[in-house]
Amino acid sequence: MKFVFIIFLLSVSLISFAANSVTILIDPGHGGKDPGHLPTLDGIMQEKEIVLAISTKLGHYLTHNLSNVTVLYTRTSDTYPTLDERVEMANARGVDYVISIHVNGSENADVHGTETHIHNYDAKKSHQWAVLIEDQFKNRAGRKSRGVKTADDIGHSLQLVKFTKMPTVWLNVDLSQTHQKQNI
Ligand SMILES: [Zn+2]
User: Fold this and answer.
1) How many Å lie between the centroid of ligand 1 and the Cα of residue 154?
2) Ligand 1 centre distance from Cα of residue 105 (Å)
C-alpha cells in the first residue's frame, strides 16, 4: 500500500470525525535510539523511519486541505521522546485528538492486517474514531482489518492511550515486507 493511500484513508477518517476546529497531535512511534519492531533486513526501512514519513505526510495533507485542523507532532526528526514526554505533550498542550502511528511487522507472512488500539470501550470517542479508521482500511482499501483492540485484548495497557486526557488511538498500519520493497 502506498503511503499516499494510507494518508488518504486516515484523512477521510479524521474529516468525518472532526467537524469543528480541532488540534491533532500526531505521534510517530519510536525514533532515535528506538528503531521500532520491524525485522532488520538490508534495504528495508526501520519502523521509526516509516512512521515518521507517514506522520509527516498525513500532517501536511491535513494542514493543507483542512482549514479547521491544526497539526502538532511529538517528533519531526529522528529523536526519541519518552512515552511520559509524549503523554505530557498531549495533556499540556490541550490538544483535541492524538493519533500514534506504528507499523505491524512480522516475519510470518500470514500475520498481517491493520489494528487500531484504544484503552478501553469506556473511551467512547476514541472507540468511535478507531472504528472509523478500521472501516476505511477494510471497506475502502479492501485491506485486512484486525479490528479495534483494547488493553484487555493485548494483555497490557499502552501508555499513550491510557494516560492522555483526550480521544487517542494507536494505529498499527499493515506494511508487509513485500509492500515495503515495492512502495517505499
Ligand atoms: Zn511500533
Assistant:
1) 14
2) 9
Complete edge-to-edge strand list for the sheet that includes strand 114-117:
69-73, 22-28, 97-104, 168-174, 114-117, 145-149
Report CA-CA distances (Å) from 96 to 48, 69, 73, 89. 24, 10, 13, 12
Task: Decide if pLDDT at 177 tops 60.
Answer: no
Average pLDDT over residues 23-41: 90
What is the pLDDT confidence band of residue 173, given thresholds at 50, 70 and 90?
confident
| pTM score, whole prediction | 0.88
Instruction: Say if domain 3-183 classifies as CATH 3.40.630.40.
Output: yes
Report angle CA 127, 108, 111 to the nearest 5 degrees: 25
Contacting residues for 67 by C-beta, under 8 A, at least 6 apart: none
Q: At what angle do helices 3-17 and 47-65 cross, to 10 degrees?
A: 50
Cα of 47 to ligand 1 centre, how many Å?
A: 7
C-alpha dihedral sign at 41, 47, 50, 52:
negative
